[in-house]
């Protein structure tokens, strides 16, 4: 069972406030509040922990919220590979109230310094055992030269590093070209790999084009609570519908899918990509029916 290293560039220090109701333009007083650390890689590590999978979360907890983030990660027993020099974690708030849609407010992107990136790359280079490297979420300032050493590491990674990707934004096409073994994202992100009229093609056609263009055989496309598409190798893309549930909080559902795919494909035997995606969808639906992330019983 190889270790999975999840990568989160845009760490989130998140406080959730619960109200009976809230109204724009007025002072609100919460009934309860709680703190947690967000970011796609953190959510993936949390779910991998639930599945009993060996993993470590690479992240950049810095600034005023950094110590609170690290305390929470330790309390959750999420093993970290943390880098702080010159970094500032992003802050955010989640607003919940009965009868109103959950609303999230995000602060400006996290700051990640070149020194911290170089330290992270050195740490990755020092890992001697084979591992799965899971790129989770966006990479802010991707075009900035500070990420050059990280890009070089990904491009030159050894055969003992398995790259899997759940990325979006400006960095997605670049990661797709790095011969990952698995790409998981949502339907809008699939379109980012194409231009012009190609984006209007149907999902199975786009997936087959993506498989050929980017030299990756395994693709999973989610679309919220709608149809999930799976393409495994040179066959045809297959779709299925996730279980319909009363959604309490959709936050982190895509990360639960990604974590479950990783666990099924690299830690367990006998799972096809489609079987792994069906199980992942079931877990995500069960999580959506609860207020927390990956807090349901297996």
Lay out the secondary structure.
Elements: E1 3-7, E2 12-19, E3 32-38, H1 40-50, E4 55-59, H2 66-75, E5 80-82, E6 90-97, E7 100-106, H3 114-125, E8 131-136, H4 148-156, E9 161-166, H5 172-176, E10 182-186, H6 187-191, H7 203-214, E11 218-222, E12 228-232, E13 238-240, H8 253-266, H9 273-288
Parallel strand pairs: 1-4, 1-8, 2-6, 4-5, 8-9, 9-10, 10-11
Antiparallel strand pairs: 2-3, 6-7, 11-12, 12-13
Going by CATH, what is the homologous superfamily? Ribokinase
Alpha-beta content class? alpha/beta
Low-confidence stretches: none
Query: Strand order across the biggest sheet?
Result: 5-4-1-8-9-10-11-12-13
Summed over residues and divided by their number, the pLDDT gives a mean of: 93
| N-end to C-end Cα span | 20 Å
How are helices and strands ordered from N to C? Answer: EEEHEHEEEHEHEHEHHEEEHH
For the record, the CATH class is Alpha Beta
CATH architecture: 3-Layer(aba) Sandwich
Q: Helix proportion of residues, in percent?
A: 25-40%
Shape, per Cα inertia axes = globular
Largest sheet descriptor: 9 strands, mixed
Describe this structure in words.
With about 300 residues, the protein is α/β, with parallel strands linked by helices. The protein has a single domain, classed as UDP-N-acetylmuramoyl-L-alanine:D-glutamate ligase (3-Layer(aba) Sandwich), CATH 3.40.1190.20. Helices cover about 30% and strands about 25% of the residues. The protein is built from nine helices and 13 strands. A nine-stranded mixed β-sheet has the order 5-4-1-8-9-10-11-12-13, sandwiched between helices. β6 and β7 form a beta hairpin. α1 packs across α8 (about 255-265).
